[in-house]
Amino acid sequence: MKIYLGSDHRGFMLKEKVFAYLVKNGYDVQDVGGVELNPDDDFPQFAQAAVLKIIGDDSKDPRAILICGGGQGMCMAANRFKGIRASVIWDAFEAKMTRHDNDSNVLCLPARILEDDESAWKGIVETWLNTPYANAPRFNRRNAQLDELS
């Protein structure tokens, strides 16, 4: 699984930690920016960069992790694209549920909540990356309905 990682200035420090963690643990990860701390950058460009990578990636189960202050902005931007199911997640239980039920392919993390809680963000990331999608007919039907909305 390829993981695309992006953040704005508010999520930059947490993104750097998540990137180092993923690389150290053998994940195939690509940083789509920001590449340096820039207080004037805007989250939509990084959300777009990551989801376009997912959409254009024909490997098995490509995903993205996007980080901003509250996670909401990244999630709103990412969900504008057909085939993207982004979720703002703040604990491991929700990470499990969004993967299991919704086949979430974009994890949006709130830096304000998680940047100083290493065990929390590690638990969220590992749970989200390792929880399989249930592939139940009702979940597939709902995901198809989401794609019809975009």
- Mean pLDDT equals 97
Give the second-level CATH assignment, the architecture: 3-Layer(aba) Sandwich
Structural class: alpha/beta
Write the CATH homologous superfamily: Sugar-phosphate isomerase, RpiB/LacA/LacB
Text of the CATH class: Alpha Beta
Name the helicity range: 40-55%
Termini separation comes to 25 Å
Q: Give the neighbour order of strands across the main sheet.
A: 2-1-3-5-4
Low-confidence stretches: none
Total helical elements: 7
Please report which band the strand proportion falls in: under 5%, 5-15%, 15-25%, 25-35%, 35-45% or over 45%. Answer: 15-25%
Give the overall silhouette: globular
Structural description of this entry:
This protein has helices at 12-24, 43-56, 72-78, 92-102, 111-114, 118-130, 137-149; strands at 2-7, 28-33, 63-68, 86-88, 106-110. 50% of the residues lie in helices and 17% in strands. The protein starts with a strand and ends with a helix. It has a single domain (2-149), classed as Ribose 5-phosphate Isomerase B, Chain: A, CATH 3.40.1400. Helix 2 crosses helix 3 and helix 4 packs parallel to helix 6 (118-130). It is globular and about 40 Å long. The model has no long low-confidence stretch (mean pLDDT 97).
